[in-house]
Specification:
Order of helices and strands: EHEHEHEHEHHEEHEHE
Distance between the termini: 36 Å
CATH superfamily: NAD(P)-binding Rossmann-like Domain
Number of strands: 9
Helix content: 40-55%
Radius of gyration: 18 Å
CATH architecture: 3-Layer(aba) Sandwich
Number of helices: 8
Largest sheet: 7 strands, parallel
Low-confidence stretches: none
Strand order of the largest sheet: 3-2-1-4-5-6-9
CATH class: Alpha Beta
Mean pLDDT: 95
Length: about 260
């Protein structure tokens, strides 16, 4: 796909993966709709990008909010790229130290924020992309979802998170098959441990030393720019479809994590 002139919708566009992807796609010539619940972060990214970028305050758990943001994106031009990269809670252990069970609501909330919201964005974004004119090979656009390597080897306290991210992996192929007649591809990125703003003001060198020690190579945490680089490559390569790509330096979680 030729990114220049396309419109990209980035859910979670004010955060780590989303902000890096917004920058990368904008630099490649796309117009970008930064969708985020955090107005300060989202507007800061748009101000940084300048012309060709817009912000929409978006609650990914609310269908009307998602639809309004997508409508705003289509006002910029033909929507061809949708990236789902919002964050959320990680859940908790099934039993605490006193063997009391975790609240069912905490599990359901993680599924709602990650899995249900991803599908909701996907289906609504697909409808918007389907209205764009087909390009070479009949392609209209691509949806890029974000899972995690926890989908494959989740660690302690990640039952809900792993279930949600595993669901995103599991629906990648059927979504790609569902949307193939419309010329829409679906690809999922499954990151490992990444240095993002979630770590706030922590020292990157200390984080790399702690988390990177378990990564075979390179022995450091991933960088959001590397996620964004892969997102651009997925958008550009029309033959990438129905697949989940691990982006983790060959890391495999142990029972206690990295």
């Amino acid at each position: 796909m030729e990114i220049r002139g396309a419109v990209a919708f980035v859910a979670g566009g004010g955060g780590g993966f989303g902000a890096a992807t917004s920058r990368r796609l904008h630099a490649a010539g796309a117009k970008v709709l930064v969708a985020d619940l955090d107005e300060d972060k989202g507007r800061a990214v748009v101000e940084e990008l300048g012309e060709g970028a817009a912000f929409a305050r978006t609650d990914v758990t609310d269908e009307a909010s998602i639809q309004a943001a997508l409508d705003q994106a289509t006002e910029l031009g033909p929507l061809r790229i949708a990236v789902v990269a919002h964050g959320g809670p990680g859940g908790q252990r099934t039993l605490d130290k006193s063997n009391a069970p975790a609240p069912q609501a905490s599990f359901t909330r993680v599924l709602d924020i990650f899995l249900a919201s991803t599908y909701n964005i996907d289906r609504l974004a697909a409808a918007a992309i389907a209205r764009s004119e087909p390009l070479e090979h009949g392609e209209r656009g691509v949806i890029i979802n974000t899972a995690s390597i926890a989908a494959f080897d989740g660690t302690i306290g990640q039952a809900g998170y792993s279930a949600a991210k595993g669901g995103i992996v599991a629906m990648t192929l059927p979504l790609a098959r569902d949307l193939a007649p419309a010329g829409i591809r679906v690809v999922t990125i499954a990151p490992g441990t990444f240095l993002t703003p979630a770590f706030r003001n922590a020292d990157p060198e200390q984080l790399d030393a702690y988390w990177g020690a378990a990564v075979p190579f390179p022995k450091r945490m991933g960088r959001a720019a590397e996620y964004a680089q892969l997102a651009q490559q997925i958008a550009e390569n029309v033959y990438l479809n129905g697949e989940t790509i691990r982006l983790d330096g060959a890391l495999r979680f142990t029972p206690k994590g990295a």
